[in-house]
Write a structure and sequence with these properties.
The complex is a heterodimer of chains A (422) and B (460). Chain A has two domains: 118 residues, no CATH class; 218 residues, MetI-like (MetI-like fold, Orthogonal Bundle). Chain A contains 18 helices and three strands. Chain A has a three-stranded antiparallel sheet. Chain B folds into two domains: 155 residues, no CATH class; 232 residues, MetI-like (MetI-like fold). Classes of the chains: A mainly alpha (422), B mainly alpha (460). At the A-B interface, helix 2, helix 10, helix 11, helix 12 and helix 13 of A face helix 5, helix 7, helix 8, helix 9 and helix 12 of B.
Amino acid sequence: MNSSATFVEERNPTDWQNDAMQQRIRKRYAAERRFKALGISAIILSAGFLAFLMIVMVGNGLRGFTQTELPVEIDFPAMTGGASADQFKGANGPANLRTLGVQDIVNTSVQIQYGEEGSELFSAGGWQAVNQEILENPQIVETKTTLYLPVESEIDVAFKGSGSETAENKVAELKDRLSTGFNWNFLTNSDATDPMQVGIWGALKGSLITMFITLLIAFPIGVLSALYLEEYAPKNRFTDLIEVSINNLAAVPSIIFGLLGLAVFLNLFGLPRSAALVGGLTLALMTMPVIVISGRNAVKAVPPSIREAALGIGASQMQVVFHHVLPLALPGILTGTIIGMARALGETAPLLMIGMRAFIATPPGGIVEPATVLPVQIFLWSDEVNRGFVEKTSAAIIVLLLFLLTMNALAIYLRNRFETRW
Amino acid sequence: MTGSILFMLIIVLGGIAWFFGRVKASRFSADNKKRGAVHSLPNYHGWYVALWAIGPALLFLMIWNMASPALITDAALTSPAAEQLPRDPFARGAILAEARSIASGQQVQAFNPLSQSMVEPYRTAISYYRTLGMVAALLLVFACGAFGWLRLKPELRARTKIERVTMLLLLFASLIATITTIGIFVSLIFESARFFSMVSPIDFLFGTEWNPKAVAGPRGETGFGAIPLFWGTVFIGAIIAMIVAIPLGLMSAIYLTQYAPPNFRAWMKPILEVLAGVPTVVYGYFAALTVAPALRDFAVSIGISGASSESALAAGVVMGIMIIPFVSSMADDSIAAVPSAMRDGSLAMGATKSETIKKVLIPAALPGVVGGVLLAVSRAIGETMIVVMAAGLAANMTANPFSSVTTVTTQIVKLLTGDQEFDSPKTLAAFALGLVLFIVTLLLNLIALRVVKKYREAYE
C-alpha cells in the first residue's frame, strides 16, 4: 500500500475557477442550451405544421358550407295560372310539381328581374331549391314570394374571395343584392358537375356502408384470431407462420391491398366494380391485422388469476375464454378496433384500385351498387379545374377530419373509462 | 337481392331451431333429478340444434353458388337460340358473358344482337336454378334441424361438440391472415408472370425509359423501363422525406423524453401523433394546393430552372412531416430501452444532459433508431395519395428536387385507373410494380424488425 502511493504524482486539485476552465464550461453550457433549443424548435415546427394545415383547411373549408345567393321574386299565381297549395301536399305532391314546370317559372322570373342574360347569374340547378321550398311549404304557390337562389359558381367564388375579372365586375354590380346563406345542399346532395350543387351525403353514405361491411368482417375475425393466438395456439411452426403473416400484413402498403381486391374480388370472384361490398372487403383485410394486434395485447393483459379461478370452479377452457377473458379484454379490443376503423375511413388508394372513383350522382342504395367514399370524393374534387371546388374539397376534408376526431376521442374515452389496471 | 334475404331467413330459422332445442333440453334436467345425468346446459343443446339447421344449408348454398353458373350455361345452351351462336370459342364466350350480365341485371343494353337472343334462355335458366337452390336450402334447414333436434338426449355431449366447432372457427379466423398474405403473393406473382411473358424482366428492372404503351414500338421497345420510377420513389420517400422526418422526429423524441416537463409531454405527444392520423388524401391535397405552389414560386424567385408546380420536394416534405410521429415514437422506444445505469453514469461523471444524449444515449440506441428509420422508409415508399396528388407523372431521372418525378405507387394508380383491358401489358405492369413494392417493403420490414429485436436482446 505504502509503496504504491509513492508512485502517485503530486497533483494540484483542478482549479475550476480559472479562466480557461470557466470558458470551457460556458461553452459546454451554451452547447447544452443550443441542443435544448433545437429540440423544442423541432416540436414547435412539427406542431406548427399541423396547426398550419388545420388553419388552411378550416379557412378554405368553412366557405364551402355557405353559398352566395340572389333574391328572386316569383309571382306564382300569375305564372302557374292559379295553382293551389293543396296540390303539393301529401303523396301526390312531387308528381304534381313536375307538371308545374318550376324550372321555366324560375327562369322567366329571373329574366324579368335580371334581364335577358339573367339566368347566367344563377347556378344551373338552383331552381331545385324552389322545388324543395314548395314541397316543404306549399302555401307559397298562392302568393308572390321572394326566394333566395344560389348564384353561379364563379360569382360565388368572387364574392367570397377573389375571382376572375368578369365575375368581380358582376359582383360589384350586384353588391347590395348578394347575400350569404348556409349551403344545405352540401350536406344533402351527392357529386355533381356544378360546384354549387355538389354535396357530400352520397360519399358519406358510401363511407358508412363501406365501414359497416369492414367492421362486420374485420371485427369477428380479428377478435377470434386474437383469442386463438393468445389462448390456444400451440408453440409450433404453424403458429409462427400465422403470427408472421399478421405482422407482415400490418406493414404492407395499402395500395397492395387494392391490387389484391382488384385481382381477387373483381376478376376472380366477379363481384361488381365500385361497390361498397368490395371496398368493405378490401379494407377489412387491411384493418384486421390492426385489430388482431391490439386484441392480443388486451387479452394478454387479463391476469392469469382470472383464468385459474374460472378453471378452478369447473369451467371448461372455452367457457373461461368466452365468459371471462373476452369480456374483460373487450374495452381494449374495442379501442384498437376504433383506431383501425379510423384508419380505414381515411384510406383512399386501395379504393381507387377497385374502381370506387366513378362519378356517382346518387347516394348508394345497397352494398352492391356503385358507391364512392369520402376520401375518394375529396381526391376527385381536388382534381377538378373549376375553382369553386377548392372550398368544397376543404369542406369535405373538415367533415372527414371531424369524423376521425370523434372516433379517436371515443377510443380515448373507452380506454380511460373501461381499461382496468390489474 | 334474393340471396341476402335467403341468408337472413336461414339465420332466423336457426334462431328458431336454437329455441326449440333449448326448450327440449330444459325438460331433461326437470325429468332427471340425479346429479350428472344431464351432460350439458340447455343453452348448448340449443346451439347444437341451431348448428345442425344452419351449417349444412349454408355449406350447400356455397357449393351451389359455385356450381350453378356452369349448370346455367349448359341449360341456356340447350335452348333453340343457342344454335345460331358462332363456333369460335372467343366470340361465343363474349356473347354468353354479355347475355348473362343482361339477364342478371348488371347491364341494360346488348351490343351484339345475338346476345339479346340469348338473354331469355339465360333468364329462365337463372330463375330456375335459383328457385331450385332456394328450395333445396330451405329443405336442408328443416331436415337437418329436425335431425339435430331428434338427437337431443340428456347424455348428449352437446357442450363438447359445440366447443369443438368453436375451436375450428377460431382456427379458421386466424388462418385468414395467412390466406390473405398468400393471396396477395399469388395474385401479384400470377399477374406479373403474365406481364413478364410480354416484357422481359431485364428491360423492366433495368430499362431507363418509362413510357408505357399498349403496343411495342418499331424497334421492339415498350417503354417499360422502371428505373426512373424506382429513382423517383427513393428520391421522395427515402431521401427528401427522411431529411425532414429524421431530424424533426429524433429531436422531438429527445426533447419530449429528456427535457420536457411531464405536463408538456402529456399534451404534446398526442398532438404530434395526430400528424400520423390525418388521412393521406388530406396531406396530398395540402401538398398540391399550398406547399407545391409556394415551393415553385420560391424556386423561381431564386432562379432555379425546371421548377414545376408538381415537385418532388413538395411531396417529399409533406410525406416527411407525416412520418415524424412514426420516427419519433420508434426513437422514443429505443431511448427508453437504454439502461438507466448508462445515463446515470454519464451524468455522474459530470457530462451535461446534451453530452449524455449525444455521446451515450444516441449511440446506445442507434440500432433501434436505425430500425425505426427503415420502417419509416418502408412506409414512405408505399405511400400513395401524397405522391399521386403532388409528385406528378413525368418519369424524370433528375436530382433537382424542384422538378417533377414520378413514383411506383403513382404509376400503379395511373395504370389501373384509365381504360382497362385486362390483357394489355399496360394494366399488367401495375401488378409487376406492385410485386416489386411488396417485396421491397417486406424486406425492409424484416431487416428492421431483426435489427430492433437484436438490439433489444443486447440490453436484456
